[in-house]
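Hi there,

I know you've been waiting on this one. I reran it after we fixed the sequence typo, so this is the corrected version. Both the input and the resulting structure follow.
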Amino acid sequence: MENTALTNHSPFSRGLQRETKRAAVLSCAAKLLNTKGARSTTLTDIASRLGLTKTSLYYYVSNKEDLIYQCYQANMQQAHEQLDRAEQNNTAPLACLLEFLDSQIATTLRSLDGEGDFYAAPLEFASLKAEYRNALETAYRQLLGRLIDLVKRGMALGDIRPCDPIVTIRAMIGAMDWSFYWLYEMPRDEAETVIDVVRDLLTHGLLHPNSDYQPGQQADLSIFSEQEPAFDRDTQNRLKQEAFLKAGTRCFNQKGFSGTSLDEIVEQLNVSKGAFYYHFANKEALLTQCYDYTLDQLERVITHVEDIDASPAARLDVAMRLIFSLQNSDQGPLIHFNSITALPPDVRRRLLDRLSAVHTAMEAFITAATAASQFRALPPGIVIQLLTGALNAAMDLNEWQAIDAIDRSAIDYYALFFHGLAPTAAP
């Protein structure tokens, strides 16, 4: 009788060969999805990189949508497996959480070194057909549920400081969701430090033990409270354009570029397509202006915060709370930068240069707060990238927990980064 276990691991096993080749297809596709986006990634691209014909590729996937689904499914599977291993290796919930995050970063770094598979960041669930979308959303919610339970168990054991478990995990996973992008761009020697920085930041937080600043102390959040003149024609035209930008941003954030329909946007606003084309040439122009609108808001926040009479720590705190408010108020939401791969390289570069200038200003707050002994010494660039990821995810928080008071929710959301998770880091 044939030994099935031995046969499945034999180099002559057809099943093993097929799975190995399928994994190579998914890894190649994941790298392209992460760098070029779903819109620009084609089956022909993937086949040519693997030395296959497009026809050969159909042995592993039925079409492009099936390929994206399988890539996202592989990501979800490896995340659950990494959490399984972390739970097997650690009895303390905090150590388990940190090992899970370590493994997520290490997976990306190994892929960049050519030592492991690439995994696609699951950015466009909503653009897939219901069957695929529901399966992926179920796996994602199960993962977050397991992580939330870890935080609850850690608090019960005194291993994790008192916090809102749902808000804390949403901020944590949001911070990591953007890492696939900036880790790809970061110099390799700097990327080597990321695991230690993430572990340090999420354990102990930014605040120096001797700092007397507490997030929420600075209450200057009046920047977005002005009234618009109701009968000024130019203002009304601008408000109509902004209505398109806000509706478009919501759709792009939920469904990505490929899954967003102009019909859906005009239906949301109860206007004609002619009204859309009065303001925008096409869908790509809308996405570009959504990014410019978001960057206008971020630059407005930075200018305001730089002018207030406050300490460096307070400036970062107020900036983060203002941006959170934008994400969760009538002035928002802000665009998820995940969809930027759908834009042409020259447009993408211009927008990323604007974002880089915002990051530089926020890094300056951290550098100044560190010099004033308000913050512990952590690399500002890495901290800001993590905060950017959390900011990107802030607009989805109300899907997990009702937001009754925006500023209070913002303080809870960023507590992870200011205070960390360890009980000794509690205020």
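Quick highlight: Residues 1-13 have pLDDT under 50 and may be disordered.

Best,
R. S.
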